[in-house]
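Page 47, continued from p. 46.
Same chain as before, 422 aa.
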Amino acid sequence: MTTTPTIAFAPAPTDRAWLRDRRAAAAERVAERGMPTAEEEDWRHSRVAEIDLVRFPPAAHPSPESEAERAATLPVVGAIGEFGLLAVTYDGHLVHHEGAMAGISFSDLSQSAESSNLDRSGPDVFAELNTAQAPSPLLVEAAPGAVADKPVVIVHWAGQDGASSFPRTIVRAGQASELTVVEVWLSDDVNALVVPRTELDADRDAVLRHVVLSDLGPRVWQVASTTARSGQGGSIVSGTVALGGEYARFRIDADLLEEGGEAQLVAAYFGDGHQVHDFRTLQAHTGKRTSSDLIFKGAVTGSSRSVYSGLIRVNPGASATSAFLTNRNLVLSDDATAYSVPNLEIVNENDLRSCGHAATSGPIDEDQVFYLESRGVPTEVARRLIILGFFDDVLARFPVEGLRGVARDRVAAKLLTTAGVA
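Result:
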């Protein structure tokens, strides 16, 4: 840690006393931690040294013109399909919400009389910045036993040039409930910093599915964190599609705290131009008979870069653990690079069911290209088909069918405009 972030922690005039206290506590944690450096393991190969918070003051409350941007998001929502609840934020401020489902509640915590949902400290300094600055922390809760037959869709739009925004989403799935939440991160073509924070909690025997589509503009920097916790017998699915942003970092921590908890983590990412997609994951096993399975697939072309660093940690007492980590990368041009660093940390080696990892990075298999060419498929088309097929098994694991279609369409569109793929 080196310098302390220089950023104004000015509470909104409408903040209640309890919320001002939470923001002040988070600001103190930011000052204590200071900014990380690329010399630290968690930030190795990152561009954290280039993030100057002074250049990006927190975004102001949106103007009425933001309704135009909100309307622009609706085609994406339509492509995802039917929803039970829809919320739209503009630079972190809630500007629209609609819909209702039995047993599912939605609230803006900035309007609550009191809440303990903002008490948890974050996994890094940017998550703490989010707690200090998020103007509209959103809470989605499934009551015990509730089963949501349609997803909750939350669209986060970044629109102010030269500003930072802090979308915050907290999802709680009560005992034996079932809930799906989709978050979509979009933006105008602005020079901005977006710092989202998401917390997922699956109570005993609950099933919680969460999917992110990140398709920010080419000049947006993003530093995001997701923490997922499962109770006894709880199940969490976390999926990420990363396509946009100049620099887009994702930290995803899955904590399997109690017996029988399970987590599935999937991601698909595609970088071109000078983009950097930076993933850091943790599969932490504490309870007995817990299981986790991670599969991340990415492609890089142009002079883009991907970074993946993942850790499986088996804590003392976590007997009968089953954990796997797989990262596969396609490198589609000479100037593109893909770093992949999988790790195991097994504190308790007794009675493990299975634990392992695998990582590969390389070009398209030319034998596959030749096979399609020999059957009359043009070379350019063959290569595109192979790349789309490379992503298919990951996208098939996403729990929202409409989002799978959106992701495939966006990857295909990128391929049509990407040099070096043909």
